Request: fold
Amino acid sequence: MKLTEDDLYRASTQFKHWSFTPSQLAAQRQKTNIQASERVKAAVARQRAQRAKHFDTASASESERNGTPVPTDRQVDCLTVAEEKKLVDTFCEKAIDLGGFFKFPIEVTATGIQFLRRFYLFNSPMTYEPQTISRSAMFVANKTEGHHLTLEKYAAGFPKATTEQVLAPEYLIVQALRFNFDIRHPFRALKGGHLDMIEMARGNITPLPSNPEPALDIHSSMLKLPRKPNGPETNMTVNDLEKRITDAYSHASHILKTAALLTDAYFLYTPSQIWLSAHLLADEPLTLFYLSAKLPSSSPNYPKILATLRSCADLLSSHHSFSSPTTTPAEKQARDKKEKEEVQALIKKLRHCRDPDKMDLVKLNQAQKRDAVDAGGLEESKAKRRKLEREGYQKEADDFWGPELPRRENGAKAG
Amino acid sequence: MSRVSSRASGTSTKRLAEDGDICPVCKSSRYLNPNMRFLVNPECYHRMCESCVDRIFSHGPAPCPIAGCKRTLRKARFRSQTFEDLKVEREVDIRRRVARVMNKTESDFETLADYNNYLETVETVTWNLILKIDLEATERRLRLWEEAQKAELESLYSSASRRVLSTADQDLQSDTQRVILKKSGVQRKTVSHSSSAADTPEPTAAGNADTGFRFHGLKKRVAPEPEKPFDPYGGWSLEPQYYVVQPDYDVDFITGAKTDIHHLAGGYDLRDFYSRALCEAFSGFGVFVQDEIIARENGVVERVRTETQAAASVTVGVRDVNMDDVF
Ligand SMILES: [Zn+2]
Ligand SMILES: [Zn+2]
Reply:
């Protein structure tokens, strides 16, 4: 029984549960946004009604006397889908800084960011505050990537965060991730590709069964690769070529550590396609040459793969962190400034449309546990439902195992 | 009977001896020595106290001190009795011994009737031993049977292990033949045929020898299937389409690891990294997420559909409300 590399990827949860078409992504975000907005509005309305009632009994006469009606608050201004996405993107970016601050390996940070993105596909920043969630998601990522760090040490890294605050949303996050902890990153893939290219440049690669072009031919035509797409042929030495490949590697690696993490690339493309796209952005002629060595351009899949890579590359280069050699520092600075202002406004807006029910996650987490100290934390209906569920389980067990045996009162009677 | 009468007659010493409170050898009684223990030897089942055993048999085997019994006893075989009645004790011992040798089960026989006949024989043997009928002959048959069984098992296991070795051998052989010769399959077939015939020898000539007993309908023992080498991938293997792993790579970021003792001490093999990195480089290369997902949603790919149905229902978000209900 043979498997191809692609079959391996198809078996991953990333492909099975966390890959989408752009329209699916948009639809899901829309749905999440609508659900969250409705909840926020309903919760706020309920709170206001409560307050109004309180207010009424206290000062109804007063307001009547003044002839001014109780001031009706204006409608809650909820975030739009685009605004939500922007917020999430921003916090993903902040997560990179967070990883840098704690000196996490890039895999940890990258996993944390993907957890965050997956989480906010089904939850809205209005419901759960991104800052709290990103803190916990990063901690979960530490654990899943095998980078061990004590909770105390981690919590101490934040100016104001307790260990409870880090842990409180943990189960929520893990559940939103559908317990899929495996994130396939393109980092090692890029390294593998780099190894392959270097050996190719040196001319000691074993020809592929599907493309039996001798290694030396590949080697010699590789030395003539133009610098720019459609540029003139060059005549590099092997050392030049190796340097060129290494440069492309570090550029691509940078893209993978920034733009690839901060866009929807992981949802829309496979890690293999992502690293190749990043490499395409870094050095187009080289990458195209590499591709043609792997897959003859006569192959029916070739144009399709190239189109996929190009669209992925477009996505990566559309991110504001992407800087091609043509962008000037001033341009970039202006772009960053504009970005920052927008985000500031958004965070301000978010403050007014938070879901009041989900403000204190620590308290909610405690209440959710069975032996909650604070019994009032659990809504009555929920407590009742839990009790019913428990009784249901008991009944099911009785149906299966039979009811508990009646205790025998007296041994002598039976004897 | 005798017990009742002796009690009635009132001879207290005799009664005490029977109840086991006086050692028949040294006549010391439990009345004087409350910690006294009595032991028996399954050779003749004569009782005596522990200190007598120590005294008489410490220097090696010696004859039983009870009058009229001349059996040679060894100290090591003395033990405290389990059953009060020494007859029962003896019968249990005999049954245990017979059961160890004659240990067939129903599944070893063709029919239930055959098995019952076998049990009948076993019971006869047991009672012969208990009642000391044909003692010599029965013991001899039992011994022959035990030896025959042992010999049968040994030949079975040695041939089984030989077979494991030879199949490994054969695999290797045929592999090399496939690679080097690439000749007609007929030739290889004959080779493997002849070798397999040589590997499984005919059950030894035990068939004619005296095995003590002969049972009708007893199945021939079959050697258990040799255990196959464990394959963690369950028969699956990776066949890369887009790369061939080179034996070695020389790039800046791995030169350190090649000589770093921390990497090498744990048995870390850079070749594992090479194959993993290259596999990841192309894992999903030809997976067009959009097309495949649309196909999956539409159920065009039947194989994928059934397996991802659950997944689809999750991703579509049917269970969202529930999922959110952690708090
Ligand atoms: Zn004694
Ligand atoms: Zn004796």
Remarks:
- Chain B touches chain A through 46 residues (CB under 8 Å).
- The radius of gyration of chain B is 37 Å.
